[in-house]
TrEMBL record:
The keyword Transmembrane helix applies. Residues 39-73 form a coiled coil. This is SHOCT domain-containing protein. The chain crosses the membrane at residues 6-39. The lineage of its organism: Bacteria, Bacillati, Bacillota, Clostridia, Eubacteriales. Keywords: Coiled coil, Membrane, Transmembrane, Transmembrane helix.
Length: 279
């Protein structure tokens, strides 16, 4: 169509050279044709955009309807948490997608809303051993530039890396002839943390891996399964057990003292010895 307008414009130009009046009339007609064509093109473009928008809205409506039916089927509550599943569950073939999750009185529920997905997975709370965060966050300091024109020492692409917890990196310089560039330092943060949820299924242990953002969600849903909480409770139980054992032994020693089997000095010595063990 572009070549057609070029040819038409050329004809108008030739007519204008042969007769200005005819040329002016032809020019007006040419402008009218351009405007009409532009309006028709805009109309087609708008119609195409409306059709594409209509198709997108239909797809969205169908997806919402499909999801609504699916959520009613699996009794998914309105309030859920979204966590990114990575891998590990024997019933889920896909990797790296989001699941809706919530907890009932006895179960942790996972819901796969994708078309052709597994639907709802129920994990009894009694089958969950624990969840915890593993991996680390570390920073990498990338240094570049610093060259001296005509020769000198430059730091080109050296890297200083280390754990946030206190690792020490190294900067390596090299001597080369380069133009003078300013030294640039860029800090890059690497986060390879992930959340592990250990479960028992059919007498086997499975480690289900989620994105690190799942930690806070699981901590809110099943706080008593947090590994740190379990570890702290165990340590407290051990301390309480030691204290109770020590108290029982002191009571028995007191009876031996009252019966004259132990002297007061021996009783105090043994009592102090037991108390020192639990402090």
């Amino acid at each position: 169509m572009g070549w057609g307008f070029i040819m038409l414009g050329l004809i108008v130009f030739l007519l204008f050279l042969s007769s200005p009046i005819i040329g002016i009339v032809s020019l007006v007609l040419f402008i009218i044709i351009l405007i009409t064509y532009g309006m028709a093109t805009d109309k087609k473009r708008m119609e195409k955009m409306k059709e594409e928008q209509r198709i997108q809205e239909e797809k969205k409506e169908k997806e919402e309807q499909r999801l609504k039916v699916l959520m009613e089927k699996y009794e998914v509550p309105e309030e859920t948490k979204s966590i990114k599943y990575k891998h590990g569950h024997p019933l889920i073939d896909k990797k790296n997608f989001h699941l809706k999750t919530w907890v009932t009185e006895d179960n942790l529920c996972l819901f796969d809303k994708t078309e052709g997905g597994v639907g709802k997975i129920v994990i009894p709370l009694d089958d969950i051993e624990y969840f915890n965060m593993r991996g680390e966050v570390y920073r990498e300091n990338k240094i570049s530039g610093g060259g001296v024109s005509g020769g000198g020492t430059s730091v080109g692409g050296a890297v200083a890396g280390g754990l946030i917890a206190g690792g020490v990196g190294a900067v390596v310089g090299s001597r080369k002839s380069v133009k003078g560039d300013p030294i640039k330092s860029e800090t890059i943060t690497h986060d390879n943390r992930e959340v592990l949820l250990r479960i028992n299924l059919d007498s086997k242990k499975y480690d289900i891996i989620f994105n690190n953002n799942a930690y806070q969600s699981l901590k809110e849903l099943i706080p008593d399964k947090d590994y740190e909480s379990i570890k702290n409770d165990y340590l407290i139980d051990q301390v309480n057990k030691k204290e109770n054992d020590a108290i029982d032994k002191i009571k028995r020693l007191s009876l031996l003292r009252d019966e004259g089997i132990l002297t007061e000095e021996e009783f105090r010595f043994k009592k102090k010895e037991l108390l020192d063990k639990i402090n």
